[in-house]
Amino acid sequence: MPNLLANAVLVLWPAVTLALCLRLRLAPGRAIIAAILAGYLLLPPAPAALDLPLLPDLGKEELPALAAFVIALVLWRPGLSILPESPVLRALLVLYVLSPVGSSLTNPEPLVYGPRVLPGLGLREAGGAVILQAIKVMPFLLARHFLARPEDRRDLILALMIGGLAYSLPVLVEIRLAPQINVWVYGFFQHSFEQMMRAGGFRPIVFLYHALWVAFFMMTALVAAAAVARERGGGAVAVVVVLWLAAILVLGKSYAAILYALLLVPAVLVLSPRWQVHLAALFAVAALAWPVARIVDVAPVDTIVAMASELGQDRAHSLDFRFDNERALTARAMEKPVFGWGIWGRNQIYSPQDGSELSITDGRWIVVLGMQGLVGLAAEFGLLALPLLGVWRRRRDIAGDDGAIWTGALALILGVNMLDLLPNATLTPLTWLVAGAVLAVAETRQAAAVASAPAPAATAPIATVL
């Protein structure tokens, strides 16, 4: 159970956010980045959360976003533009926030599996879920407005790099000793200890949900450091930072994150920003295509397992197990394809005799499909993918932009994060923050293109990003 310090830190976090904005006199963009990044890295993970009246539980992902959003409304409300310009993105935003209403209203019946009874859903569950959805997307909306300038994107890249450097110290402690820092500080262990052991050593977890989350963040920091090294012409300090973060990532023993780094770091160092955007858009399309292929049962899973077997039978068996679960959970989700099964684990598969859970959900896409159906999946993945596709549309304009290096790196980070949502559930406030920054690029370049275009002979509607 979380100790007193865990609860105290959560209670005091809004005041910390306010101090970042007022006492330290940070610019709005930097304050938003600092509040959300520090909250994600330092606050206690679930089950630690604030239980406030009339609100769902507010944990490390929700509390920093809500605090930053409220403070932004109070301090910087004049000129604050929250909603995207694109009608398509606005529609997806509405669907994302309100999809739990459909899930709740279409699942009133309780489900009984032997001794296990899962309650039906109603408006009470819908209200809490809608509030949570709205809070989760707040970093996206804040970044779209406050991270629109090249220097803001540079600040975000630098913050990711500095955050990775700071986190590398507790990461090293856990690699050497044991993943116990959260126990020492907040009084509880947040996951299965067995999953933090690999190759005769430990995988760090620090204050995040799982070692995979730590590895993905360290990979993100490494990519950011590579962008800084390129911008500075490969200076000695920048190269040392890249090598240090690369070593930390390898020591963490999370193979997927290492593979991502092997792909992205050379891309950031060698490819032009235009080609980086091409690659990021390809990642987004692949992330959108996989759920469709699984739903219509045309995904080449046997071929992928055969390829994995060349790397080791353990990896092949693990991948085959994941695919079997995906197949069963997809069939379960398609029993209620539009809005899904809702909360309380109703999307899972259980034994009808003893109620034991027979399925394991790993990928974010299958979680959303099962809980919120095709509507929720399209809304969430659409909000992440369309900023990348919008930047891809303006790739020629972006190539000559002052912040092209930062745009390319952020696009790659978002694209590979979308890919990682297929096997894992690494959707975090940082994902939404980066997505909002990428959307800001697409919108500013679109506005610049419209402003520089010759005046039409007759009044015509202004095009949006998508």
Shape: globular
Approximate strand percentage: under 5%
Structural class assignment: mainly alpha
SSE arrangement, N to C: HHHHEEHHHHEEHHHHHHHHHH
Strand ordering within the main sheet: 1-2
Proportion in helices: 55-70%
Largest sheet features: 2 strands, antiparallel
Query: What is the average of the pLDDT values?
Result: 91
CA-to-CA gap between the ends? Answer: 47 Å
Put simply, the count of helices is 18
| Rg estimate, integer Å | 22 Å
Low-confidence stretches: none
**Strand segment count:** 4
Short structural description:
This protein is mainly α. The chain has helices at 4-22, 28-42, 63-75, 87-105, 123-136, 138-146, 150-176, 181-186, 211-231, 236-251, 255-270, 273-295, 301-309, 313-333, 364-393, 395-399, 404-420, 429-452, and strands at residues 111-113, 116-118, 197-198, 201-202.
What is the secondary structure topology, with strand pairs?
Elements: H1 4-22, H2 28-42, H3 63-75, H4 87-105, E1 111-113, E2 116-118, H5 123-136, H6 138-146, H7 150-176, H8 181-186, E3 197-198, E4 201-202, H9 211-231, H10 236-251, H11 255-270, H12 273-295, H13 301-309, H14 313-333, H15 364-393, H16 395-399, H17 404-420, H18 429-452
Antiparallel strand pairs: 1-2, 3-4
Helix pairs in contact: 1-2, 1-3, 2-3, 2-6, 2-7, 4-5, 4-15, 6-18, 7-9, 7-10, 7-17, 9-10, 9-11, 9-17, 12-15, 12-17, 13-14, 14-15, 15-17, 15-18, 17-18
